[in-house]
Amino acid sequence: MTDKILIIEDEQDIAELIAVHMHELGLTPDKCHTGKLGLAEALSQDYQLVILDVMLPDMSGLDICRQLREAKPLQAIMMLTSRSSETDRVLGLELGADDYMAKPFSVRELQARVRAQLRRVHSLQSIAVPSQVKAVTCIGKLMVDHQCHKVTYHDNSINLTSTEFELLSFLGKHPDQVFSRSQLLDSVWGYHHSGYEHTVNSHINRLRNKLEKDVTQPQIIQTVWGVGYKLNSAGVH
């Protein structure tokens, strides 16, 4: 069974171009040219990935992202934004988008990013856990269940998006080890392209909002200035 992709894009030429190149990957793309129709389709059907334009004629792609994320926490979402619209990119990531592409974009890069997203989706959907990987990581009061895709902290369940879970899971497997943004893009998102470090920053901020007592002085996910981020095992208590 092929993976299904939903393209919510009002510019029909761009939507058709994306669909053609999704077919090249062996995927089944559906297209919606308005936000309301796209949101209804995304909520009523099961798609492995939603490719969502920010600028739509009837409603903001940011609102669609927020509503879709609330209804389907594990839905993979990639946003399309104007290259000059850094605010939209950051807002989209803060609202729960897993990734973004700036227009105009390279078709080959788009395909690579879609493949990376689908690899993560398939990993999350897989029931079996490789024997060499521990099924559960426990660090202090933080527990990450890699098989059930569940996180608890002080016995409280923490609701994470699929990408937030993958990021925390990766950091949890390497406590106290510092990773640069480039390394995290490679390891968690499955690619690295210059200029997309905002993706990492936004997901780190969202994890902190869900885990830290005081996000202005993070004790769990810490910044090592000039280097990157680490999960501080001493702060998980």
From TrEMBL:
Residues 4-118 form the Response regulatory domain. GO terms for cellular component: cytosol; protein-DNA complex. GO terms for biological process: regulation of DNA-templated transcription. GO terms for molecular function: phosphorelay response regulator activity; transcription cis-regulatory region binding. The modification 4-aspartylphosphate is found at D53. Residues 134-233 bind DNA. Keywords: DNA-binding, Phosphoprotein, Two-component regulatory system. Residues 134-233 form the OmpR/PhoB-type domain. InterPro entries: CheY-like_superfamily, OmpR/PhoB-type_DNA-bd, Sig_transdc_resp-reg_C-effctor, Sig_transdc_resp-reg_receiver, WalR-like, WH-like_DNA-bd_sf. SMART domains: REC, Trans_reg_C. Pfam families: Response_reg (PF00072), Trans_reg_C (PF00486). PROSITE patterns: OMPR_PHOB, RESPONSE_REGULATORY. This protein is a positive regulator for the phosphate regulon. Transcription of this operon is positively regulated by PhoB and PhoR when phosphate is limited. This is Phosphate regulon transcriptional regulatory protein PhoB. It comes from Thalassotalea euphylliae.
